[in-house]
Write a structure and sequence with these properties.
Jelly Rolls, mainly beta, 7% helix, 21 strands
Length: 280
């Protein structure tokens, strides 16, 4: 099985995970790269969409709304994102203001409503994990947005650090322990010549894949535990797109590695004691 999609340096709209892709039931994912003054439009359609500005500036017209000059960051490592959530039934037009890159995340939906601009200050940012499995998790389209299926965010790994660790999955509907959701990761690396490693595996090893991911690559995760590590000396960010029948995020940690969470309070306490000992 090949769930790894290599990046392509092209302008216009790139349908990375198109409608009807056999690897997903809900998620469509594409990249929109525009030069100054170029535009791309679609709709209306029976899908909800999350447009995440990865870098650069653009104007987004959604239905009767016009969100002019959005996008404050140079790239995904330069702060939080502007995003636009568009429920089904609206026409969308994106116009580049200089070079801009926008992630276009879609899922089927019949939940109508007005479009919504998401400001960088609304993005929920959390530090997750400790030591070399510490990372920054950013919820862009989360509970504050009335989506039917989509959850969208970004995770940033420091050089050499792991994320989705302890490894987790979301393969089965058995709340409150787990909810079934498919996922897509889109990777950025800084400096760009760097790399990371993505593993996807199931307990019975029916799936056990390892991919070297580089800047601009995408990985589809229909099932399985899916940890990621950044190469030494390189920051790694991945946009994550989740969707399922129910919009509930209940990840299930691999029992073999769940002890990592158990030691996190001990690591934190040791750090506090050390800071006290040196007078901080």
């Amino acid at each position: 099985m090949d769930w790894h999609i290599k990046g392509r340096e092209e302008y216009g709209f790139l349908p990375v995970v198109p409608e009807g892709d056999p690897r997903t039931d809900f998620i469509e994912f594409g990249l929109l790269r525009l030069r100054d003054g170029e535009e791309y439009r679609w709709g209306p359609e029976g899908k909800e969409a999350a447009l995440v500005v990865l870098g650069g500036r653009c104007t987004v017209y959604a239905g009767v709304e016009a969100y002019e000059g959005i996008g404050e960051r140079q790239d995904v490592f330069s702060g939080e994102a502007h995003a636009v959530f568009v429920p089904p039934g609206h026409r969308v037009r994106v116009v580049g203001l200089g070079d801009v890159e926008v992630a276009v995340c879609k899922a089927p939906s019949d939940r109508e409503g007005p479009p919504r601009l998401i400001f960088p200050g609304e993005v929920r940012v959390r530090s997750v994990g400790k030591l070399n499995w510490r990372r920054e998790v950013k919820e862009i389209v989360g509970p504050q947005v009335s989506a039917q299926h989509l959850l969208v965010g970004e995770t940033v790994n420091p050089p050499g650090n792991w994320s989705s660790s302890p490894p987790h999955r979301h393969d089965f509907d058995r709340p409150p322990e787990e909810a079934d959701m498919e996922e897509v990761y889109f990777f950025k690396v800084k400096p760009r010549q760097g790399f990371g490693i993505q593993r996807i595996y199931t307990e019975d090893r029916d799936v056990d894949e390892v991919y070297v991911v580089e800047d601009g690559d995408t990985v589809v995760i229909p099932r399985g535990y899916h940890p990621v590590v950044a190469g030494p000396g390189y920051r790694l960010c991945y946009l994550w797109v989740l969707a399922g029948r129910e919009r509930i995020l209940l990840p299930y940690d691999d029992p073999a590695h769940r002890w990592l969470k158990d030691v996190e309070p001990i690591v934190e306490e040791a750090g506090l004691q050390y800071q006290k000992s040196i007078g901080r």
